[in-house]
Amino acid sequence: MKAMILAAGLGKRMQPLTNFAPKPLLNVGDRYLIEFHLEKLAKAGIKDVVINTHWLAEKIPEALGSGAKWGLTIQYRHEPELLETAGGIQQALDFLVDDDAETFLLINGDVYFEWDLAVWLEKAQVLIKSRQAFLALVENPSHHLDGDFCVDTESHSLSLKKTLS
Question: Apex CA 40: angle with CA 159 and CA 149, to 5°?
Answer without folding.
Answer: 10
